[in-house]
Amino acid sequence: MNNIVSHKSIAPLKKLKLSKEEVLNDFRLANESRQASLLGRREVLTGKAKFGIFGDGKEIPQLAMAKVFENGDWRSGYYRDQTFMLAASMLTLEEIFAQLYGDTDIKANPANGGRLMNNHFATRSLDEKGNWKDLTKQKNSAADSSPTASQMPRLLGLAEASKFFKLADKKKDFKQFTKNGNEVAFGTIGDASTSEGYFFETMNAAGVMQVPLAMSVWDDGWGISVANKYQTTKGSISEILKGFEKQKDSNGFYIFKAYGYDYPELIETYRKGIALCRKEQVPVLFHIMGCTQPQGHSTSGSHERYKTPEQLQKETEIDGISQMRKWILTSKIATEEELNLIETESVKKARQARKNAWNNYQKPIIQKKQDFLKLVDITSCECAQTTSIDGIKKELFRIGEPMRKDIVSAARKILRLVCDNCSNPKNSLKANITEWLKKETIENERRYSSHLYSESELNTEHITINPPKYTEKTELVPGREILRDNFDFIFEHNPLVLAFGEDVGKIGGVNQTYEGLQEKYGTHRIFDTGIREATIIGQGLGMAMRGLRPIAEIQYFDYLLYGLQVLSDDLATLHYRTAGGQKAPLIVSTRGHRLEGIWHSGSPLSMVINSIQGMHIAVPRNMTQAAGFYNTYLKSDQPVLIIEPLNAYRLREKRPENIGEFNSPVGIP
Q: Is the pLDDT of residue 6 over 70?
């Protein structure tokens, strides 16, 4: 095992089309990332952070993946991807530690502003006003979410957006979002999480749709303490997906296999796979075996509890960084002294990054503590509880590394002790602390609770309402025709809009609200999907994150429960969990409230309302109001669920003269 570097791996730099500097830079990045993982665990165990989960053991394949990741591309992954994020310049070492400490400073922690646990990555798609940046001029990462495999549904939409842009009218201006649909959506997942239904649903859909989706499975043989043989049939995700493999003149996806410790093989594998994915716009699967987890799953436990000494020894021997080191020496790319220097400098750099991040996190809190103590000291007030107040001040003063909670707690304790009748009303201790707490509460509200809903100029509160107009000659038509004609207007005037769902395309919807529109506007704008509600939501979410305005239809309200987790954990939280850095103005369309038995169509409204805070829910009473809601939310950047009334499609309503131009107010029955 000590000589695991194979002859196949000893590939000359010329063949790999890499310079010595590039290889050594990769070796440096791998070591810096590993040191950040080791130090991060230590920060948790010494009490500076609550929990830590890191990407050690997956460094080498992520370096290879980063080499084929271009401006405009998107990542949808999970918490093991820190090396990839570093190599793609979407993350700094300081930001790894800022996330660990929960720093709320957006400049220090741009991914999530301290709103998530560590190693949850994201880039910022929006400027400070909530407007789109040029996404083609940066590398993009969708905001991570914690539930296992939750990165999969949105990944499908991120990839499908490229296909849409490729097929779209080239006369339309999409240059802020795409370079002619050339972008690839990169997904990552752990081998154990491929057992989740979302993984299979997404991969099946990608194989059907033929979209540029590049899926990497980091296979370390474990799902926390549960071995691979209990997770996956045959113990291999690539083996059981062979039936999905793309053949000549068939759909499906290409399958590539490589080992996580073989740097040259990984470089060549990713180059070949992504070239196919990008050029042919087809999905590819990379099964990366032989990954490891040197520190176990997370700081919550030790892998020594469930791995045998032999297993631990094997992981040490196939460690990707040590194998890359051997390959560099065997290939005579660099000397032992050069590699030793890189390793020493990596330790220093990671330690300095930790120090910088901690100081940046602590500095404003220490300043706030000092300001508060000064406020209490300069207040002239004689109280019966002066001794107790002094004790609280001294206790706060002694805290060398305070949290904001410590200061607020001290303020509240003092406030409970001070008397109502102060000896100096103009400089009252009670009045001053009350005012300080009021300001702090407002600051913390912004710091921890902003951006649950849109705060941009496109918020629905800022949308001008234009009511439907009628004349004496206004005709009565079935309600579904109002929706159909309104959609016709929308598709004619807004090239970013597309609609999809079960039976939406060819037959125009089960209630004919898209009648004839696919033939008029094309199958790339109005199309059918399989029966797979979770990834219908995911399609819409991913496309909306890339600047499109999708309308994702769930055929009946009852079926929404299949996609509720995606709505609740991903779409509804997106703007909040990125502190305003990303948005997905998706319209989810469904129908219900006819009560045709408990599944066709019931009304699980109370559950849905309480599950998707962060989204609006619009429940129109007729089709005119429904059409108006579509018009309102297409002018807004607020995601919404619109529930059309099933009984109203055939009921006749007055057809507005200004079809497509009127809109419905939000929050007014």
A: no
In order of 151, 156, 209, 275, 536, the CA distances from 184 in angstroms are 15, 11, 14, 10, 19
3-state secondary structure of 623: helix
How far apart are the C-alpha atoms of 156 and 498, rounded to whole Å? Answer: 15
Map out the domains of the chain as residue ranges. 13-80+150-334, 363-449, 460-654
- β-strands 222-223, 226-227: how paired? antiparallel
What is the dihedral angle through the alpha carbons of 623, 625, 631, 635, rounded to the nearest 10 degrees? -150
Which helix (H) or strand (E) segment holds residue 652: the answer is strand 652-654
Structure tokens at 471: 């004349």
- Rounded to whole angstroms, the Cα distance separating 477 from 248 reads 50
* 600 noted as active-site residue: yes
Q: For position 599, what pLDDT does the model report?
A: 79
CATH superfamily to which 460-654 belongs: Thiamin diphosphate (ThDP)-binding fold, Pyr/PP domains (3.40.50.970)
User: Predicted confidence band at 426 (pLDDT cuts at 50, 70, 90)?
Assistant: low
Q: Give me the CATH topology for the region 13-80+150-334.
A: Rossmann fold (3.40.50)
Kindly report, residue by residue over 488-497, the tens digit of the pLDDT: 999 999 999 9
Strands (E), 125-283: 140-141, 185-190, 213-218, 222-223, 226-227, 254-259
pLDDT digits (tens, 9 = 90+) for 381-406: 666 677 888 899 999 999 999 999 99
DSSP E strand boundaries for 494-556: 497-501, 526-528, 549-553
Catalytic-labelled residue, pool 120, 451, 462, 600: 600
Give me the chain's average pLDDT, please. Answer: 95
Per-residue pLDDT, 7: 43
Neighbours of 398 (CB within 10 A): 8
Cα–Cα distances (Å) from 667 to 88, 369, 622, in that order, read: 44, 42, 15
195: cis peptide before it, omega within 30°?
Answer: no
pLDDT digits (tens, 9 = 90+) for 507-526: 999 999 999 999 999 999 99
